Amino acid sequence: MLETPQGPLTESSAIARYLASLSTSYPLYPQPTDATDTTRALIDAWIDWALVFDKVAESWAYPMLGLRSNEPTAVATAKSDFDKALQTLEIHLKSSTFLVGESLTLADLVVISHLLLLYITVCFGESINNAFLTPCMNA
């Protein structure tokens, strides 16, 4: 939760949007330049799209961390969803360095943050889980 002058914000995406919109030195979530500027809408679309990784993590990474029971059917679906999502990213990033526009935006940061848990657990498996995540989870 983040307390603001207008009241509390409770969702991570809302907090990220709010904080990014405060920055005047680097346009992570730039103000529209005119009524036809779709930059923020495109950033919002990628932020919303990144939620697919949360569902994948719940079914695939959480069981690896002992946070949820392992359900083979759910894991298989999560793996398929993960592959499809990564294909979407690959296709988009073949023609662009960043998700939106020509520089880093909130979309890039949010997608990366949603991928982090999966990257650590799925790509590195038990060795990284035991060495890094388990002590962090028990701290």
Describe this structure in words.
This protein is mainly alpha-helical. It has one domain: Glutathione S-transferase Yfyf (Class Pi), Chain A, domain 2 (Up-down Bundle), CATH 1.20.1050.10. It is built from 5 helices and 2 strands; from the N terminus they run ββααααα. The protein has helices spanning 12-22, 39-49, 52-64, 72-94, 106-137; strands spanning 2-4, 7-9. Helix 3 (52-64) packs parallel to helix 5 (106-137). The longest helix has 32 residues, at 106-137. The mean pLDDT is 89.
Going by CATH, the architecture would be Up-down Bundle
Radius of gyration: 17 Å
Profile the largest sheet: 2 strands, antiparallel
Percent helix range? 55-70%
Strand element count: 2
Unreliable residue stretches: none
CATH class: Mainly Alpha
Number of domains: 1
What is the CATH topology classification name?
Answer: Glutathione S-transferase Yfyf (Class Pi), Chain A, domain 2
Strand fraction equals under 5%
Tell me the distance between the termini.
21 Å
Characterize the overall form: globular
The helix/strand series, from N terminus to C terminus, equals EEHHHHH
Number of helices: 5
Mean pLDDT: 89
**Numbering strands along the chain, what is their spatial order in the largest sheet?**
1-2
- Label the structural class: mainly alpha
